[in-house]
Design a protein that fits this description.
26 strands, 9-stranded mixed sheet, Rossmann fold, alpha/beta, single chain
Length: 591
C-alpha cells in the first residue's frame, strides 16, 4: 500500500527516520500515544530515541526520555555510537530521567504514576518539551501485578499526554511467538493511537528485522510488513513507496565498453537507466561489468563496483587478463571497488551500505555483481524488493546502473532470473553457452532495450589477451556457427574461394594467351595488307609515270616534225609527193 497524502484531520510530527515517515504518512500523531512493541533486540529503544533526537535536531522540538529498565547513562552511550551529539543535546533539547528500578525494590502498598507525571510536566514546561519517551514501560507496570491497575495507569498516561499536549512514545516487550491478544499487556495496543510492532527472524542463518504498523487511528498507513535495519546512523526503514522514479527525458547515451555492442543497441545505454546482464557461471558477466566501468572512468566519470564474494585484488587481476585495466582508475580515485561477503548481513543491510557508498562516492555509473547473491540472505522476495529500490534510487540520481544475475543451467531459451526483476530493467542482455561438437562458446543476445531499436541477432562473445569483442553473425545452412565450427567453415569457404580464384586466374591466362596469339596474327595480316597496299601504290605510280613519259616523247616527236614543216614552208619547199600535207585539229598529219 502506498501513502501519498497526509490525513488532514491528524496533525503529525516527523520522526526524520528514512522510510518510517513514508509508511506512516508523515510521522507520529502529534499530542497522542504511539506504542512500539517487540521482542529483545528488535530496536525499540533505538527507534524511540532516534525520533526524539531527530525532533530536537531537525525541528528544534525538545524532548524527554524516561528509562525504566536500562540505565539512562548507558542509553546515552549507546546513542553516541550512532553519531548523535548527546552531550550537546542534553544541555537544552533532551532530558534523560533514570527511572530504573533496582532489584532490591520492594512494593509496599499501592502506588501510581501521579508523582512521576507531575515532575515530568514541570520539566516539560521548563524546557518547552514536545515529545516524551517512556522506555520499557512494561517493567514498571509489572510491579502493579494487577491488570485493572495497569490499565488505569496507562489511561492516566494517555490523559496526561492529551492534557499537556505532549507526543508520547511508549515501548514495551512482547513474546514474538504469541499473538498480540495473547500477550500479558495485550490490551495496550487497543489504548494507543498508533501501534508499531517490531520483530526479527532468522532466514538461512541471517537475521532479518521487520516492522509493521498494526494500527494508526485516523490516518492511512502501510499495512504490510516492511524491512528495516539498524545501521551506523540508526534505524532505516526499507519503504518502497517513497522511491518511485521521477519521469526523466533520458536522451544521452553512454558506452557499454564494447563498440559492436553499442552498435547493436543503437549507440549504447541511455544515461540514468539500468541494464540487467544474466548468464550462468563463467559466461563473462563480471568482465562486462568491469568493461562498462572502465569505459566510464575513461570518460572521466566516477564509478562504483560492488562485488559480492570476490575480493578487489582478484577482480583487478582477472579483468587485466582480458585487457580491462582497472588499477590506474583505482589509483586516481575515479573507481571504487567494494568487496562484500554476502552472508555478512541481510539484503536490507547490503542495500543500506550501497546507499551510503553512493552518497560518499557520488558515482555516475555503478555495477553490482552478482546482485542475485542477495537471494541467499533473505529470499527472493526480499532481494527483489532491494533491487527495486536500488534501481529507483539510481534512476532518480541519474546513475547508470548495471546489475548481474546468475542463471543456473545452459538453456539459452530460459529467459528468467532468480530475482524476477527483468520487468524493472530498462535493458536486458543475456550471455549463454553454445554447446556444439564438444566445444563451449559464449553467445550474447539483447532480449530487450527500452526506447532503442536493437539487434535481434545472437553474437559470439570472444575474450582474448587483446580484449573483448563481438563477432559478426555467421550462418550456414540456417544455423549460427561459433567457435571451431565457424573457423572450420570460414577456412573451407576461404579455401574454396582461393581454389576458385586460381581457376579463374588460369583461365584468364589461357584467354590472354589466345588473345595475344590472335593479336600477333592480326599484326602479321595487317603488315601483309600494308605491303600489298604499298605495292599496288608503287605499280599505280609506275604506270602513271610510264604513261606520262610516253606522252612526253610523242609530244616531242610531233613538235620536231611541226618545226621541220614550218621551216620548209618558210623556204617554199613542197612536201614530198607534190602536195602539201593538211593538219587535222588533233595535230596529226593527213594525206
Amino acid at each position: 500500500m502506498s501513502v501519498k497524502k497526509r490525513a488532514r484531520f491528524i496533525e503529525k510530527i516527523s520522526t526524520g527516520i528514512e522510510g518510517f515517515d513514508e509508511i506512516t504518512g508523515g510521522g507520529l500523531p502529534r499530542g497522542r500515544t504511539t506504542l512500539i512493541m517487540g521482542g529483545p533486540g528488535c530496536g525499540k529503544t533505538v527507534l524511540a530515541l532516534q525520533a526524539l533526537v531527530n525532533g530536537a535536531t531537525r525541528h528544534g522540538a525538545p524532548g524527554m526520555f524516561v528509562a525504566f529498565e536500562e540505565n539512562a547513562d548507558l542509553v546515552e552511550e549507546n546513542a553516541e555510537s550512532f553519531g548523535w551529539d548527546m552531550a550537546g543535546l542534553q544541555k537544552k533539547l533532551i532530558y534523560f530521567l533514570n527511572a530504573q528500578l533496582t532489584p532490591d525494590v520492594v512494593k509496599v502498598g499501592e502506588f501510581d504514576l501521579t508523582a512521576l507525571l507531575a515532575g515530568l510536566e514541570a520539566k516539560a514546561k521548563e524546557m518547552g518539551a514536545k515529545l516524551v519517551v517512556f522506555d520499557a514501560l512494561d517493567v514498571l507496570l509489572s510491579l502493579l501485578d494487577d491488570p485493572a491497575a495497569e490499565r488505569r495507569e496507562l489511561y492516566r498516561i494517555q490523559a496526561w499526554l492529551k492534557r499537556t499536549g505532549l507526543t508520547g512514545i511508549l515501548t514495551t516487550k512482547i513474546e514474538e511467538d504469541k499473538s498480540p491478544a495473547g500477550q500479558r499487556y495485550g490490551f495496550m495496543p487497543f489504548m494507543a493511537d498508533c501501534v508499531v510492532r517490531l520483530g526479527q527472524r532468522v532466514i538461512d542463518r541471517v537475521a532479518v528485522r521487520e516492522m509493521r504498523l498494526v494500527k494508526y487511528r485516523g490516518s492511512p498507513h502501510v499495512l504490510n510488513e516492511v524491512p528495516f535495519v539498524i545501521g551506523a546512523a540508526g534505524v532505516e526503514v526499507g519503504a518502497s513507496n517513497g522511491v518511485h522514479p521521477e519521469p526523466q527525458p533520458f536522451k544521452m547515451r553512454v558506452s557499454t565498453g564494447i563498440e559492436r555492442l553499442d552498435e547493436m543497441m543503437e549507440g549504447g545505454i541511455y544515461r540514468g537507466t539500468n541494464v540487467l546482464i544474466t548468464g550462468s557461471a563463467g559466461t563473462g558477466k563480471s568482465t562486462l561489468s568491469g568493461l562498462f566501468l572502465e569505459a566510464a572512468c575513461r570518460r572521466g566519470e566516477r564509478a562504483l563496483f560492488v562485488s559480492f564474494d570476490e575480493n578487489t585484488r582478484d577482480i583487478v587481476r582477472d579483468l587485466a587478463s582480458v585487457g580491462v585495466r582497472l588499477a590506474p582508475h583505482l589509483k586516481t580515485g575515479l573507481l571504487r571497488i567494494e568487496s562484500v561477503r554476502t552472508e555478512a548481513a541481510s539484503s536490507e543491510d547490503h542495500l543500506i551500505r550501497m546507499k551510503h557508498l553512493i552518497r560518499e562516492h557520488k558515482p555516475a555509473c555503478i555495477a553490482v555483481d552478482p546482485f542475485s547473491a542477495l537471494v541467499k540472505v533473505g529470499g527472493e522476495l526480499a532481494a527483489r524488493n532491494v533491487a527495486e529500490r536500488l534501481i529507483y534510487l539510481c534512476r532518480n540520481e541519474r546513475i547508470t546502473a548495471l546489475l548481474t544475475s546468475m542463471i543456473e543451467g545452459t538453456d539459452v531459451t530460459m529467459e528468467t532470473t532468480p530475482l524476477h526483476i527483468s520487468t524493472l530493467a530498462d535493458s536486458w542482455l543475456q550471455i549463454s553457452y553454445s554447446l556444439h561438437a564438444g566445444e563451449r562458446n559464449r553467445a550474447l543476445t539483447i532480449i530487450k532495450s527500452r526506447g532503442s531499436k536493437h539487434s535481434n541477432q545472437m553474437r559470439e562473445l570472444i575474450f582474448s589477451n587483446s580484449g573483448i569483442t563481438l563477432t559478426d553473425p555467421y550462418t550456414a545452412g540456417g544455423e549460427v556457427l561459433m567457435g571451431t565450427l565457424r573457423i572450420e567453415k570460414e577456412n573451407a569457404v576461404r579455401t574454396m574461394a582461393e581454389r576458385k580464384r586460381h581457376e579463374i586466374d588460369h583461365k584468364r591466362r589461357e584467354i590472354e594467351l589466345i588473345l595475344a596469339e590472335r593479336d600477333l596474327r592480326l599484326v602479321g595480316a595487317q603488315r601483309d595488307l600494308l605491303d600489298c597496299s604499298e605495292e599496288l601504290d608503287s605499280l599505280a605510280l609506275a604506270q602513271i609515270t610510264s604513261t606520262s613519259e610516253r606522252t612526253q616523247r610523242q609530244d616531242a616527236v610531233v613538235r620536231k616534225r611541226d618545226d621541220k614543216l614550218v621551216r620548209e614552208q618558210a623556204n617554199g619547199a613542197k612536201p614530198a609527193g607534190g602536195k602539201p600535207c593538211k593538219r587535222s585539229k588533233a595535230g596529226n598529219e593527213q594525206p
